[in-house]
Design goal:
4 helices, membrane, about 5% strand, elongated, two-stranded antiparallel sheet, transmembrane helix, about 170 residues, mainly alpha, single chain, transmembrane, DUF1648
Amino acid sequence: MSIEYFISRVWRYLSIAAFVIVLLFTYRGLPDPTAVHFGENGRGDGFLPKNEVFYLFGGIMFAFNILVVLLINSVQKLPANAFQWIPNKKWLIDRKQLNDTVVNWLNFLPAVVNTFLLLILRALLALNDERTFNTDYTYLLVIGVAAIIIWIFYLPIKLLYTNPDVVED
């Protein structure tokens, strides 16, 4: 078992568990109706019932994780010639390592998205709390974009600049 395998799975499952816990606590703490859009003065000017916010976030997370699982299963069934585009041909010799690398990479995507949604829920709860004075959460967009960019470039960089492990029989 590689460290990449361990981190991708643990982060994914911990992010799912943390998301569910934060979603339940957020639902409990949100006012009804919940402000989901804020004007220039920092006050809410667009509202949704808190149960719609709960089901919207839960549905997005659930659907996204299911779609990624389906994508992982589809990638594992691809024929060997589907990866001929990889410039580092050493990866094509051991198909199992290539599959494992791609599957680990795909498992990082829901972990990143679940973590980002968790941060958004936390910010939404803080913005709807009248006791919160810090209402600047614009850094969350930067964090989300940076995480997705890192995820996008991780696999191409790994396939270009590393070689698969040599397996001795």
